[in-house]
Amino acid sequence: MNPFSPHLLALVAIGGAGGSLLRYATGIWCAGWFGTALPWGTLAVNVAGSAVIGLLGGLMLGGLAVSQEARVLLITGILGGFTTFSAFSLDIGTLALRSPALALGYLALTLLGGLGAFALCFAFGRVLA
C-alpha cells in the first residue's frame, strides 16, 4: 500500500489533531493541579506516551496483528501529536533488541544533537531579536 495514499494521510492528520488536543489539555490540567514551577504537562505526556507506545510495540512484537491503518492512526497520528518522545522511546527499544550499542549511540546522538541544535538556534534567535 502506498504510504502517501490519501486515506493514510487523513488518518495521520486526524490522529495528530486529536493527540495535539490531548497534549494541550494535559498541559492545562497538570498546570492547574501541580503548578508551573516545572513543565509537568510535558513530563506527563512524555511518560504516558512512552507507556502507551511501549504497550503497543510489545503487543505487536508479541504477535498482535495491527493493520497499517490502525498503526498510522494510533502511533504516527495520535501518539505523534501527543508526544514525539514516545516514538523516540520505541526507536530506542527496538534498536536495543538488535544492538544495545547502536541504541546507546542513537540515544547519545539524539540527545546531544537535539540539545546542541536547540542551544545554537536559541542563541542565534536571541541575537536576531
Question: How does this structure look, described?
Answer:
- The chain is built from five helices and no strands.
- The chain is mainly alpha-helical and 129 residues long.
- The protein has two domains: 6-98, no CATH class; 100-129.
- The longest helix is centred in the first third of the chain and has 29 residues, at 6-34.
- Gross geometry: globular
Rg from Cα: 17 Å
Q: How is the quaternary structure best described?
A: single chain
Query: Domains counted in the coordinates: how many?
Result: 2
Uncertain runs = none
Kindly name the structural category: mainly alpha
Helix content: over 70%
Number of separate helices: 5
Distance between the termini: 46 Å
Please tell me the overall pLDDT: 90
Query: Could you give a short account of the major beta sheet?
Result: none
**Number of DSSP strand runs:** 0
Strand content: under 5%
Summarize the helix and strand pattern as letters. HHHHH
Protein name: Fluoride-specific ion channel FluC
Function: Fluoride-specific ion channel. Important for reducing fluoride concentration in the cell, thus reducing its toxicity.
Subcellular location: Cell membrane
Main location: membrane
